[in-house]
Amino acid sequence: MPARFAAPDTAALPLHLIESDGLDPWLADQPAPVAAWAKASGFTGALGTALMIPGPEGAPVAALAGYGTAAQRARHRFPLAGAVPSLAPGVYRIASGLPEGGAMTESLGWLLTGYQFTRYRAGSDVTRALVAPEGVDAGRVETLAAAEWLTRDLVNTPASDMGPDALEAAARALAADHGASIEVITGDDLLARNFPMIHAVGRASAQAPRLIDLRWGASGPLLTLVGKGVCFDTGGLNLKPGASMGLMKKDMGGAANTLGLAQAIMTLGLKLRLRLLIPAVENSVAGNSFRPGDILTSRKGLTVEINNTDAEGRLVLADALSYGDDEAPDLMISMATLTGAARVAVGPDLAPFYADDEALAAALAQAGGQLADPVWRMPFHTPYEAMIEPGIADLDNAPSGGFAGSITAALFLRRFTAQAKRYAHFDIYAWQPSAAPGRPKGGLGQGGRAILGALPEVLDL
């Protein structure tokens, strides 16, 4: 169950955020026993530390959270979250020290510290609740946390329990919760309905490939989200080495992120029409696997030479994007754990995105900064179009040479979005490689809050 704020009228301990150079001035205004206790405990205001202040009877009457320096806080997405695990269980209210403009981010970080993946083992029942700071839209922040919760749970679940069947079930549950409609095209029906590349990539799996199509909202601009749902990626006949296969349960991270974003949009009741397309497949090895050297004809009619079966994500996305593009949406966004090249370019912490529209790109960057969801614009560099044109077919799914791998993948996808009024592509990682405040190791939402924050401006909501 996603974390929630404590009720405003809950009895709560005052929590003071103390910067490293602000401890002495703060202590000077406190009763002598409080100052003596803080000094005897060695509390310095270091970032991520905490100290409980006892009253005359020994029970805590307040707490301090180290807030470090501005330079130290700049290195963390959720600076306060690092101190939360060191606080005693209970309910807290931030009494002082919260910088102007930091209430939403820090309160979101607090909620996210409560995340635990408990499907396969019991979690801790210790809770540290927060009363929402004054001026914070508690419902909206709880919605953001719940979206992140859903995304993390989906990514963290192994393919044994999160194959195409289970991903469909998750989408159906979301649709039922919010009164959305859903259609799923499965197996050989994909061929009958002209989704040849989704079928080709997923046909070797024990679970049939499918295209999940969720719709919500009756009026307003049309937003179409397309999430890569490769529930496990062996690499196909271009089999990945064992070490490279270890995290491939997260290759449906694009689908997980779009499901989390869709949940937030529907919960908030945004005045738009939402369409969510998820090609859900497993890239497996069998006698009917698609092969290197094959040429596939896409839904759009463009032919694609397969030079590496491990570059399958762009194939299933292409058919889904082409389907979504038929409606000329006001905004279409694809999200995918698409290339290792993106990780080499920006590392795991940033969500790189591509957009030709300057206003869209600016809105995404601004919203990402405001909502603790950093994104970074990458170029749709048109001169590289030649790199995805092999000569024998219209497109190459894996250009040789190794240069600009994320850019060429994005250019490949752009070929299938000609009618969309605006298009952006996110090449995300969807994984936190090591624990950080508010972000335990494991599945991660990336780009969703930035998109959500940009929608009002981009779609004039």
Automatic annotation (TrEMBL):
MF-aspect GO terms: manganese ion binding; metalloaminopeptidase activity
One GO cellular component term: cytoplasm
Limits of the Cytosol aminopeptidase domain: 308-315
Keyword terms of this UniProt record: Aminopeptidase, Hydrolase, Manganese, Protease
InterPro entries recorded: Leucine_aapep/pepB, Macro_dom-like, Peptidase_M17_C, Peptidase_M17_N_1
Family: Belongs to the peptidase M17 family.
Lineage of origin: Bacteria, Pseudomonadati, Pseudomonadota, Alphaproteobacteria, Rhodobacterales
UniProt cross-references to Gene3D superfamilies, sorted A to Z: Leucine Aminopeptidase, subunit E, domain 1 (3.40.220.10), Zn peptidases (3.40.630.10)
Enzyme class, spelled out: hydrolase
Entry EC number(s): 3.4.11.23
Protein name: Peptidase B
GO biological process annotation, one example: proteolysis
Pfam families per the UniProt record, alphabetical: Peptidase_M17, Peptidase_M17_N_1
Designated gene of the protein: pepB
